[in-house]
Amino acid sequence: MAQEQKNVVTLPARAVDKNSVTMTDNRTGQSYEFPILDGTEGPSLIDISKMYAKTGMFTYDPGFTSTGSCQSGITFIDGEKGILLHRGYPIEQLVAEASYLDVCYLLLHGELPAQIEKREFEKSITMHTMLHEQLTSFYRGFKRSAHPMAVMVGVVGALSAFYHEDTDIHDPLQRMIAAHRLIAKMPTIGAFAFKYSLGQPFMYPKNELSYAENLLRMMFAVPTEDYEINPIFARAVDRILILHADHEQNASTSTVRLAGSSGANPFACVASGIASLWGPAHGGANEAVLNMLGDIGDKRNIPKFIARAKDKNDNFRLMGFGHRVYKNFDPRAKVMKETCHEVLNELGIKDPVLPIALELERIALEDEYFIEKKLYPNVDFYSGIILRALGFPTQMFTVLFAIARTTGWVAHWKEMFTGDDSHRIGRPRQLYIGPKKRNFKRVENRKKSMPDWLKMWGGRNG
Ligand code: ACO
User: Which residue is closest in CA terms to ligand 1's atom 15?
Assistant: First the structure.
């Protein structure tokens, strides 16, 4: 056997009849059998949960590109075909026919609500929209200029201090109440973060309004004037919420699941999801898109930015392009693009960034680099433009995403208790590449070994 073949494990073609896979360690010639799990849709998975016990080896998959972390019945994505289903329903149909709270119910409970269930669910969410008055004073500890996502992480985390004693995660009723509280309070928390940044009084929720209407009013009304809700705005916000409600095991949802796997308080778990969502590679992308379009400033500058995105020595990426799962198109981006044009047409808004966005999309989609790497506009490419047209400041974009995704987070959190028998504390393994065991050196015997601190922290210029 050739030397370079020795250190590999070969996976023979899938043994369909036996529903298992045989792996052979070419170093020893020993074979191991692993079961294949078939879901209702999508690729099968090799069950390697007994791998370490059988082989003494772990698997290596940084970024979890090929690793399933759980069983889930909530959302299905086919990235090659551009399909997104929630509990089996295509996202396009949900956006056209359902409200955000219908989708919340669907994600949480598995079915669309019947009339009476819809009424009861909407009532329960409405009844939980207010914040404990003590929590409102929590805002005052933040700088007015703080990023609202930082405020969200803090305030949602603080909810765990308000609802810890009456949140027994092993009690289904208390789990349900925690889920309803989170979905109901997020728009209030987000809108209060915005009001705080402006120095304006908090606008309390109003029970007669829909979820999206309430959000708009709490964001944009002031106590001194009547606020008329534009139904086109409310519908657009509702659509944006639906499009962001869930996306299976993305970074923030996996964060919530991992945090929740230890039995942690659900409000604290959702705060960890918000932190993960904030990053520009995830939910922070719609804010980053608008910043990027502003930096481009003029259609004539687009080629310069495209060239930067392709340059390996430049960290710049075309924000709003590319997706870990969608390698054809993002079905949410399609709907978002339509909504974007609808909103801008209805409102007669001529946003100077829109022609830049459209031209950027056209050029990128014809560019060999983007075609070869299957980089298409994702949902965030257009959502930022809509939100700006609706009057949301850029820093609030990811907050809207967090409000919407709360439903997905709590649906997955709930599923860990109800849907997946294999649920255990999450604990990934690693390939250790640090020093081997060595003896402690007293300070007088140590040589200065790290002359360059920048290099030590991953800097390039060291
Ligand atoms: N611009 C330029 N090049 C890109 C981009 C981009 N937006 N996205 C990926 N690439 C390139 C990478 O440089 C890499 O090139 P290489 O193979 O030569 O090294 C290749 O495409 C694959 O990229 P990865 O980073 O390995 O892909 P991954 O699946 O890990 O990342 C991600 C996906 C994070 C979304 C990435 O495409 C990206 O950073 N996009 C911009 C940020 C963004 O829009 N995020 C929103 C995601 S959607 C959401 O969270 C709702």
Answer: 373
